[in-house]
Amino acid sequence: MANTPSNMLPLGTIAPDFNLLNTVTNSQASLTELKGSKGTVIAFICNHCPFVKHVNPELAKMAKIYQTKGIGFIAISSNDVINYPQDAPHLMKKTAQEEGYTFPYLYDETQAVAQAYDAACTPDFYVFDADLKLVYRGQFDDSRPGNGIPVTGNDLKNALDALIDNTPVNAHQKPSIGCNIKWKK
Questions:
Q1: Which of 87, 94, 159, 179 is positioned for an S-S bond with 79, CB 3.0–4.6 A?
Q2: For 138-163, what is each residue's pLDDT tens digit?
Q3: Are 102 and 34 in contact (CB under 8 A)?
Q4: In degrees, to the nearest 5, what angle opens at C-alpha 51 toward C-alphas 47 and 53?
Q5: What does the pLDDT look like over 164-183, one tens digit per residue?
Q6: Nearest CA among 61, 70, 19 for reference residue 40
Q7: Which domain holds residue 55?
């Protein structure tokens, strides 16, 4: 397992727009269509990464709760599926169903979206406010596969709660750690 950290896009950055294949519905979806009324979580994930598998159950649970509070959740996989066929779109749909995702799981075939967000690893989390300004980027929580710390999602939850409560999001943010995005050669 590679331990690749987030690049930590500057806070205040406006979310780059995109229009990608939603592997769950087999239709195109844009950020404008999918964003939440109070904020939006964009998570760069993939099917095979042990770091993503580690947080998946809590991520699915968290999304169900926060979607009812006006937070949109969007997952994006940007991995090279030629060299990592387990991340192919038809398997993304299967993963979304098995994990109980209530949010779209988008396929970034050209990797342009991952590049626009300066995404580096899976999972890599970004939270944008209602105006699509970046207020949080970094880790889900301190848990990692094998470190014995329970998966809570507290870092992400704290950012979302602050956003919903209209209070400042703590600027002390830790990078996520995970598998590197599998870039095309």
A1: 87
A2: 999 999 999 999 999 999 999 999 99
A3: no
A4: 45
A5: 999 999 999 999 999 999 99
A6: 70
A7: 4-180
